[in-house]
Amino acid sequence: MKLERQQISFQQLQEKLNHALAKTPNKTSDTRVGLLTSITGGEIATLMLSPKDGTAELMVTALEHNKFPSLSTRHAQFHWFERALFDFFGIVPEGHPRFKHLLLHDQYPQDFFPLRKIALPDDFKNHLARRYEYLEVKGEGVYELPVGPIHAGVIEPGHFRFSCFGETIVNLEIRLGWVHRGVEKRLTEVPWQKAHFVAEAAASDTALANAFAHAIAIESILDIAVTERAEYLRTIALEIERLAVHIIDVGGIGTDIGLLGVSSAMGRLRGKALGLADLLSGSRFLRGFIFPGGVRPVSERKLSEIKAGVIALKKDLTPVIQILSENQMATERMKDIGKLSKSLAHEFGMVGIIGKACGLECDTRQQFKQGKYPELAPQTVLESGGDILARTAVRIGEIWSSLDTIEKLVDACPHGEEKVALPDKLPANATGLGIVEATRGELIHLIFTDEEGKICRYAIKDPSFDNWTAISIAIRDNLIADFPLCNKSMALSYSGNDL
Amino acid sequence: MIAINTEAILETLAFVATFLLLPPLLVGIIRKTKARFQNRIGAPLLQPYFDLMKLMSKGETISKHTSWIFRSTAAINVSLLIILAFLAPWTSLRPFNLGADLFLVIYLLALTRFFTVLSALDAGSAFGGFGASREVTLALLVEPAVILCLAAIGSVSQTSDLGVAFSFNNVSLINQPGLWFIAGCGLFLASLVELSRMPADDPTTHLELTMVHEAMILENSAANLALVEYSHFLKILILLGISSQCLLHAIPFFWHTSQLILALASILSIMILAASIAIIESVAVKLRWTKLPEFIAYSVAMSIFCVFIALSKNLN
Question: DSSP character for A45?
């Protein structure tokens, strides 16, 4: 989607946000925050999305003293963004209720702000001084339980600091940033024609969705359209990726409640879903399949094999999912645990599975142009419980809808060219936006080019960036022993957040 | 003076060999059965032996915050459980009866738990702390079930010596299949909790926050861990053995059969109970912590039935 940069003052921004995000007692607002970031360090850029009509607005506000009154105090969605803004640009959100480093840890020099392009003011001082202080819960019988960053399973690193009272969690603070790799900065350094290799490495189980969002953003800057066949193939690939991740995540629920038959069967079936990805792209994780301008060529024979594979997978999945969903003990284990209310989910801007499980219609496949969506978008799977059971139900629902969608798209996929030629240069001072519904939810790639047409700022907003707060909220006042299951039901990405 | 004859020596050797060698095999049976239920081939049946051997040859890491309690607990527990294996009526083949008072048996078990809990607290880690707290809470809930089941049997047989009560020649217990069966089931359900099996605890989990038994032994390593594992295996043998003996007593056939068949049936029935643990673990899920008292209530209810049966018998 092509974007105009609107220059507005901070006051206008505040008024606009107050108006756009206001909610009346009966209705929540339709507008949501896409992301908040900066381009050079001298301004803040706010992306507002209107899901209803599928449009977006980008507002750029110049800052005078390298600081601004925190927006989080009024709009909770900003709290994570503002912390990242300070880490990357050194811009201080004054009055932020829990102002700490988010991504850069103690080892970095005090005035190191990697994405900042303009000089820091002379009197600048990093008041956080790279220290990280956990929220301390006091009182007799309250104890702290540190877990991670290295965990018992083969998973990514993240530190959880529980403050517990007996078996109950009073507060959970999550510290991330352990897998910060500087993806956004690297994306501005590599030649833009090859940037998709870096973009898809942002989070490895979201490789395809990242490549897809990158391609949409670049194509929107160049103002070109890809062929109809490419649109179909991209959409098929997106659903295959969703299918594979959902299958293993549902299997993970089986592991955590001790239903090991389900988890080992799901592990095997995920392999079959990855096999579909291999058929389509030659890579089990769909690496290198989508690039700006199109997709890799796919033969008709491969497509019919994919269809046969989908039908077989449906047959194999049915009894396994039945075992999980018909087991009374399993249902009881998941019900009313890790509950997130719809109003809090909306206030904190939850996306993807977590939002859908609370009843928020936040499926961007229905809202923003991506491949053959929204025209052929499957119906959004919605639940209202907001608990582990609801999140698992959404995943299971999406497994079925993805399978159906792949079958439908393969049938309808037209013949033709897979790619179109691209110009040599990106236009100057342009902005490109790509929004894709990745497995975990709304994924945004936002690209700014400078006067020479080079990428000067590349911002990625992974769905997990919005959703990490959800765990802290949902697990409050729950049992310690329920945390792993709650965590698994959200299955957030560490690398997607840390970038 | 005890007359020494070859038969007695052979019996003793067979008994010692059984309790030293059988426990890891039971765990192997549980793991293999579970694997088959998950469509996996699973590790070899003898893998627990290999694991123990591997642990014995590893270098040990001991936290510098620990005291002698942490270092000696594993050895103390193995010794206590070996004593218990000599006392408790977990198999029909016991060449000697040292006088297994039911309270002695129960409190020897409690003593092993006491040391495990102490050593978990000794290292000062948060996991050890809540693991210990959970273990004690569960123990508090299941202990009545174990005591009442055994006490009911003792009360009918007019003795607190379990060796006498479980000896297959106690006339007051011969026509009591109901009592034996309910006591056996009650003890088996209680054993699931005592042994940290599902649905109370998931022994295969890697999630520290959900653990009970495993959380307490996170700090142990190498030979120390091997001893802890072995004493846990031994506990499985003893508790499943007592349950299976109760069930065997409920079947009249075994009251009138030869010692050899009885001894083989004892071992086979322990293996069958181990396999049933595996089946339960394959179809059940780990219960929520707050739901566990409801599960334990089943075994307590069974033990109360046993008491009723014993009371009615004594009143007659």
Answer: E
Distance CA A408, CA A415 (A): 15
Q: What is the dihedral of CA A22, A24, A26, A28, to 10 degrees?
A: 0
Strand partners, A53: none
One-letter identity of residue A186? R
- For each of the domains in chain A, give its residue range(s) and CATH number, in order of start: 1-133 (3.30.460.80), 142-175 (no CATH), 183-498 (1.10.645.10)
Q: Cis omega (within 30 of 0) on the bond before A25?
A: no
pLDDT over threshold 70, residue A350: yes
Residue in chain A closest to B202 (alpha carbons) equals: A258
List, for residues A194-230, the tens digit of each pLDDT value.
999 999 999 888 999 999 999 999 999 999 999 999 9
Q: Say whether residue B197 is in contact with chain A using an 8 A CB cutoff.
A: no
Each residue's pLDDT tens digit, B276-305: 999 999 988 888 888 899 999 999 999 999
Partners of B282 on chain A (C-beta within 8 Å) are 260-261
Pairing of β A142-147 and β A441-449? unpaired
> According to the model, what pLDDT value does residue A206 have?
93
Element (H, E) at A316: helix A300-326
CA-based nearest residue in chain B for residue A265: B38
Separation of alpha carbons B142 and B194, rounded Å: 7
pLDDT attached to residue A26: 61
Whether A349 contacts A357, CB under 8 Å: no
Cβ contact (<8 Å) for B204 and A256? no
pLDDT digits 0-9 by tens, A82-107: 999 999 999 999 999 989 999 999 88
Residue B114 makes CB contacts below 8 A (sequence gap 6+) with: none
Q: How far is B202 from chain A (nearest CA, A)?
A: 7
ipTM of the complex as predicted: 0.86
Nearest Cα of chain A lies from the Cα of B63 at a distance, in angstroms, of 17
